[in-house]
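Notes from the pairing session

We agreed to fold both candidates in a single pass and log them together. This is the raw record for the first candidate, unedited. Please don't reformat it; downstream parsing expects exactly this layout.

Candidate A
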Amino acid sequence: MDFLDEHLLPGSFGHFFLLLSLISSIGATVFYAIGLRKGGVSSELSSGTGSAAYWKRLARLFFVTEAVSVFAAFGILAYIISNHYFEYKYAWQHSSLSLEPEYLLACLWESQEGSFLLWSAWHCVLGLIFIRKQKQWEAPVMMVIGFAQVLLATMLLGVDILGLKLGSNPFLLLRNSGVLDNAPMLHEANGALRVDYLSLIKDGNDLNPLLQNYWMVIHPPVLFLGFASTIIPFAFVIGGLITRQYSEWTKAALPWALFSAAVFGLGIMMGAAWAYESLSFGGYWAWDPVENASLVPWLILVAGIHTLVIYRSTGNALRTTSLFLILAFLFVLYSTYLTRSGELQDTSVHAFTGEGITLGHQRFFLFVFVLPALALFAIRYKKIPFIAKEEEASSREFWMFVGSLVLFLSATLIIAMTSIPVFNKIQALFTGKDKLLNPLAMGEDSEYAYNRVQIFVAIVIGLLTGFGMYLRYKSTGRPFLKKLLLPSLAGLVIAALVLAFGDVNYTKQGIGYQAAIWVAVVAAIYSAVANASYIFTGLKARLKMAGGAISHVGFALILVGILISSSKKEILSYYRGGIPAFFGEKSEEKPGENVTLVKGVRTDMGKYWVTYEKDSAHAQKPLWYYFLKFESKDGKEEFYLKPNAFVNYKGNQGLMANPDAKHYLTADIFTYITSLADPTKVKDTASFKAVSTAVGDSFFYSKGYVVLEKIETERTIPGLELSATDSASIATLKVQSQMGTSYTMKSVLVNKGGVLFSQPDTITSESLILQIGKVDGNKAEFGMKESDAVLEYVTIKSLKFPFINILWAGTIIMILGMVISVIHRRGAKKEGARERKVVKKQPEDRERAPRAAVED
């Protein structure tokens, strides 16, 4: 059947390119494998002669075709979304007509299919660069990348084979997805879909409101580049194990590992910044399972980089390096499984629910890499070279190895705690869901469960990165002590000043945890000072060689920023009387840490007066922006914050809020909405109730009582013309609320030409409206109405994060240091290549040059 207004050509091309990407990735994998078998990691393979070179050229052709196919599919999906072709499920489910152009781009990777396509696209980019830059190890590395592309391509096929669903196709038509089955208005009487069904679909389902943020545009691509890049160090190790060239890959792999750590770390910290600015986590890190799942492989990768440097220096730790680089990629796959399988949907605020790619398919993707990789490592383990002699305990390499083990153990503990839901489900397979034997749980304070262990990791890493760099001078005796003494004393003095005058206190978990925080602050500050000093004393300010020290300075500053901002985090919005928070509504927030602001009413919030001045609505969707005026009580400061909130948007999801922050050099004032009345549902359905009273008497309303203080007759009313025969009666009333607050109201009854006009008065904070109806001497009749429709309010939570900028500055410095290291290592590699050419041209130097060529 032909349906009106459908655009089927883009989807047809999309299907074609997805299928072509699968076929070409299989071809690339197979032909690289053949080339590797025939030529190994040899000069023949890189020189372009012989049968191995033939298979390599053929594999390249297939991989380039694979890359073109993925880029084309990606571009077609972007075209479908940007043109609002809602006949495609992906466009309908994740976009809308009102969505801003930049968020239409974000729709590409909001769901599983789009994010897997993004991952595949990054593999293609990295593969093309690798082919051009890294000729010698091209076959083994690209064989592994090609195999990963095969599996990613199956994730996007969306076909049924013998009843088994294989992947989820982003080009699936809405009418074939089952979504329209429960929409009778789109069907004929006989159940057939109407040919003009598209004319009845006025808009898409929209991008999740919490994802409508600029971070959604830039964070996922960077993070997925980090995910994708871990496959290259992994592939180097696998290639070395397959070809039995166990150590030759190490020099070529180091720049790629550094690049991966830099991009991956940047992606993680972008996520932390997003959580801080937009997702109302109450901070930049909540130990959310999805956050942890990205942190773990990065920690292992950093540990692997350090052991790789150890091996390049002393020949030790090659086995450990191989294991770490394998596990870094495997934990990327496991983390992907955790966040996309639905395993964490009950414990994470932003895990996928498992919709789309089937659970079995994701498990296959995980195990088809995990089992062969670990098996190959185990089989080749004894063949991997090692030095029987242990490193001296006073050597720099020994303490680098200790630090790497600490990072690895930290990552292992984090992923074990994060995987508790998975462990419980595995146990349920053997005992039954209702018969779990002591199911594991994190406890009520999961954040503290992580922090009480990781605080000691911070202490150890801070100390090791501080003095470890100086151990290269240990044999110089007094000069070594002199070099080490000055930064140590400076670090201790600065740390002491910070602790003495910085009020770094966190007594919530007891004095023991408080002491650990103090020690960690000292260790982190010492590390930052010692590494900064080493750049000038040990490296003579040669920045191109200082990548490691610069990274350590950045990492130390990250620790300092985390420790100080978290321990000194201050809640500004403590309840100090007035209107209670939430008005009985359900909320996970603590009422005592929130303040309710009534529109136009200046409210006490500790150090500040805060006024909810106005609000504005989005032109096309139920999104409201609230303008909050902050005034310091000393009169020295005034600023506005503009947090926004969604109410029951995209289904019954409750309140969703994006905060706003006032940024200072030394602190941030961070504020977000925790409760508000739904502007679309507040309707005035209350009616006036008649009340008669006399001057001096009182009557009650639901939240207090009202006293009629006096009735006056006036001949002049501002803004109203009254003749000599006209008059106005003004009733002054005092309202006393149950909360102890009193208000004065004035209700006016105008007699103009014998016609009575009543002007009511309103107290919005009490939802109270009074209007005078009749006056008889010192008596009066009033109409009283209580209506929530007159109350415009927001409840806010406001926090102060001191010295948060240290954290962000540390991130930038750490990434900069890694980039400098990448550039330096690439330069060392080129220098080695030039020296190898010298060896070929001058045979008499053959004994000297190879050794020089491998020096870092």
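Candidate B (folded immediately after A)
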Amino acid sequence: MRSISIISWVFIGIMLITVALPSTANAQEGAEQVELKPDSLMPSVSDTIINDSLHVFEDTNSVTTKFDTTISKDAIESKVEYIARDSMRFDMSVEKIYLYGEAQVNYENIQLNADYIEVDLTKNTVTANGVEDSTGKMIGLPVFKEGAQEYEAGKMVYNFDTGKGKISEVKTQEGEGYIKGNEVKKTGTEVLYIRNGYYTTCNLDDPHFSLATSKLKVIPGDKIVTGPTLMKIDDVPTPLALPFGFFPNSSGQSSGILIPTYGDSRQLGFFLRDGGFYWGINEYLDASITGDIYSLGSWATNVETRYRRRYRYNGNLNFSYSNILSTYREFPDFTESNEFFVRWNHSQDTKARPGTRFSANVNVGSRTNFQNNLNSFTSDYLTNTFQSGINYSNSFPSKPFNLSVSARHNQNTQTGAFNVTLPEVAFNVSRLYPFKSVGKIGNEWWRSTYQNLGISYSGSATNQLSTNDTLLSINNFDNLVKDFRNGVQHNIPISTSFKLLKHANISPSFNYSEVWAFKTIRRGFDPTTRTLEQDTLIGLERGGTYNFNTALTTKFYSMYNYRSKKLIALRHVMTPSISFNYRPEINTGERTYTDTTGTEITYSIFEGGVYGSPNQRKSGRVGFGLLNNIEIKVKSEKDSTGVKKITLLENLGFNSGYELTADSLNWSPLSFNGRTRIGQFLSLNFNGALDPYGLDSAGRKINTTWQEQEGKLFRLTSASIALNFSLRGGNKANREKKKSSKFATEEELEYINNNLDRYVDFTVPWSLNIGYNIRYGKPAFEESITQTFNFSGDLSVTENWKVGFTSGWDFEQQEFTYTSLNINRDLHCWQMAIIWIPYGPRQSYNLTINVKASVLQDLKLNRRRDFYDVIQ
């Protein structure tokens, strides 16, 4: 690396030789003072290049010659560094330096690269250009960098003094857009004035589209303003024109208009959807307000805000409201519905407050919102139950305590059932071992018994409401408050464990539970009105229960070796278990009343309580269970060990029980369940129940075995089989590598992963998912069989074409279930999406073609949106 300051010092040295030496000689000889004049042989070098201006002047008080070293006002503030790969030539007659071949000039935060650079030491300017290769093509064109800004040019001239420059054929990136112009003037304030250029979001040298204009003004980090603008597609002018253009150019959030989607609805008319405004409030918070409007009167609005504080919390809040008009007001079948829905998701970073956590997932709205909503997604439309939860927990570091406070909600859009818990408080004490530190007393069995003895506590308090969504209104608020049920529950479990005969584990436990109710009931028969009356009393009532449990489990292993070319061994693991549960009869809070016939009827004052009645009948139940796992070992050349394990049955379980205190029907049905995978892509789940008892003529179970009645050991009362087949094309490692190598912020990736149904993954060439379920039921004499068959998938026809589908078959109605076809096309800087629902209550189609932002362009995950119409 060479520096212009080196040349400056050479010039200073020449003047020191030609001027300082004669002056020294005269002083030594004691001669009279001589006036010194500049040497006529010294080149006249601009003092703005050498930084130090040398002027000789006469000192009347001394014979010693002095030099004026004051820095000139015209001098540049920093040194200029330059380098070239091929050669450098100095021409001091014109005070210029010529750099050839991969030349580079650096000045402060400015860097200029080109195959030819000319430095003018007098004017403090640089001129950069490319050179012609053997074919006559210009190569090594100038690239100018200033801070974070970078410009590619055909030719440019730049002045270090003024910071101004003139550039020909410039191309630069500003925010998410790209600008190209024939003539560019750069000011000292970094503002660019461009003549005959264009603005585009396509990063190709020949963009797919551009907004051509005769003049642009670029203010880095702020905005881009254009004159009269004409849209071109593949350099072909279109009739689309604007008198002026304004484009945000800030590096962070940019507020602006959201362009709506155009379409036509069979029932609601022509529409504009999802048009509105995006507001980038600050780096932590943004918001968007969008709306839909239909030519026949329906409309909708949606407000969404997102917030995020790194290492603290993040979330989003969405509120939608729509007014749906069906047919015309003058028609007798005209209906009008108002729909709303609120979603709130909040998550606290685990690093924010260790031991304390707050989270929220709220989904609440009108019952028919997603059936009538104009912009609902498929997953929401096919869901008939919505749930919400807001949770706060504190684990009290270094303490055995845990406190959690939550609010929950669920609603059924089919029945209108609406349940809310507000609030629910739970306090838990972790299991404590009071005898853990006690010394060794007795034999090993006794030591393990008392050292493993643990006690814990859990308490909860809740306030619940169960109602119908039709009753939810401000006018009915007082009645809703009265309908809330509340109470407190305490549980104190005591348990231990020890080994029996070294191979069996025994786990006895004792549990005490107590309920506190603040509302109890009283019933009585009114002889005058001959009706049963019930009163609700406010006051604390307590009721406690207890029970004893023990369980014995062990494992049996068996191995079968084979001498075959492929099969090596079969391994079978059996886990049998026996449990015993005993609870005494408890009649806390029992009351009686006499009906009209004189019959005394017993009831519990805790009936209808939030934790139920603490009363219990005497019970002693013995339970039996058997769990099986079967694996085989086969020879495999693909595995480094030469052996591969294959699971034939992941789980095959059987469970039943015997009630010791019952006078009949002591045996419980034998239930079974299993799970396995067939190959790499097919999974199988099955379960069922076998009843050992027979039936009377009315279909009720009787104390006669099915063996005695029909000659068979068991009666199959229920069974189900679920088969799921899933295939995905491409190599998984390559897919993950493609995704991880692309550029996207952590927030964007998190949003995509939380909303996968809104994006199309082009890294998967194809996928296929098939699900088949069959359910059999015969609790008495009548049997029922229900089947469901669903399939979905997608196919990348080419690298940029993807077709997706979702459908199923209704065996009862003999027709296809909800069906949709999605076609997505990646058009580089554009994207196209077609959503078609060919039939059914949401029959519709929609075509969207729009310019996409470059933020997610390299991620190859394009946003898709499902649009539906309500057709009765």
